[in-house]
């Protein structure tokens, strides 16, 4: 069995084929449908991941991102319609919304949704039809918020590389226990694909098939994590830059002869970034790929990064845990949150979700402002 975070995709019920590229290199083509029988009991088989060989994608070109939240009416009048309810999940983080159908939103309502996501960090929408609308329609919705990111290694629905698939199904309990034997916890706090020059902003994850119990997702508000630091440490962090290493992230795929669609990069981003709509400052470190701090010795860098990652992951005061239900869509602002999958079910049930990951601006920071 292979189990992953929300940023890595793998599966157990796979069939492998081999195919050569134009240079004669043998590459695995992996499908999440067992090819021996050619059948699956998945509820949404057209969303099952395929790791198919394709021509190497060119490097991502810079693009100018205009955040829709900047256009939004702050009264949220196109969201706060009759029959729509907002419920805060914690004082600072997360809002659950009922009575609103994402697929029917007007453009002004989408702008307001982006603003609300920036303000509340995580939005949980119940009873959505997102899993059942045409995939093209879901992609068009996500594209309103930015250029779609195509993941360099993840499985995607066949023909739709814009959609990142999270798919887990235990083949048997023995495999599950073998996986857990090497770990005390499956929790791994991260933000998505921060090794890109322009990481995602508003991110949309929707449920397809779920265990009856388990498989929740945790979210951490990294604006609040920044605010809870002492003024002295906040000031010291400004001006520091972290290395986000996409090369190491892709290396296991190269070693295994697996698909890597685009040549990986390592980039530098500020440890404290500023949100372009709210002006809030947030910690921007990623336990998966932030490997060092520019200008620091290894021991110093490891110590500071370790503290920041633990601070984000350990403070319940700035976290929320989302329980998935059929028809749930979770939207979060990847610039000001971290998240983790929680792999805690040991049944044979499938956990199958789809993610849209529009890119945002290149991370930037604004000068430190002392407290009054």
Automatic annotation (TrEMBL):
Gene3D superfamilies registered for this protein in UniProt: Clavaminate synthase-like
Co-factor requirement? Fe(2+)
What's the protein called, per UniProt?
A: TauD/TfdA-like domain-containing protein
What taxonomic classification does the UniProt entry list for its organism? Eukaryota, Fungi, Dikarya, Ascomycota, Pezizomycotina
Keywords noted in UniProt: Dioxygenase, Iron, Metal-binding, Oxidoreductase
What family does the database annotate? Belongs to the TfdA dioxygenase family.
In its UniProt entry, the species of origin is given as Helicocarpus griseus UAMH5409
> What sequence ranges are listed for the domain TauD/TfdA-like?
86-357
Q: Tell me any Pfam family this protein matches.
A: TauD
What's any one GO cellular component for it?
Answer: cytoplasm
Q: Which GO terms describe its molecular function?
A: 2-oxoglutarate-dependent dioxygenase activity; metal ion binding
Give the top-rank taxon of the lineage listed in the UniProt record for this protein: Eukaryota
